[in-house]
Amino acid sequence: MNEQMTLDPKNDFQARQLQRGIRALVRRFSLAERSDMSCCGMTVAQAATLTALADGVLRLGELSKRLGIAASTLTRNVSRLEDRGLLCRVGDPDDRRAQRVALTESGRSAAKEVGFQEIEFARSVLECLPSGSVTSTLEGFNQLLAAVRKATEHCCPGAYDHLVSDMPGRTHGECDE
Question: Contact 77/49 with Cβ under 8 angstroms?
């Protein structure tokens, strides 16, 4: 739909359209992600844990925040990945009571494979877009992400900024007025 629509407060058509569209995207991406990760021999949550640790060692609390999961869920994921030799727990030099988690060499290799799978999927989506529309689609997508960040800042400030920090043209909480 190329025409601009203004929000009709009586109908909320646009809000429902956005909600349905996001729900469909999330479900479709979740199914594709599950399929991709099952071929890597891990759950989506385990793959997300590896991806979050790909940039370096994190405290368990920071990792839990990045993943948006409860500490008990994280503990189970970390234990399973540790049992598989994909990560290890290390002491925190700043606080002997705290633990940090790091990828092993096998974990770094698995994280690279997960990243490769994700990029391949994204490429396949971009290839399905009409010719010449990729740039405008990505610009609109970046605007949507900025709006979602701004709209959710009250409940989870900065929680997922690390996921979109490398996206062009946007900064934390920025929104067009």
Answer: yes
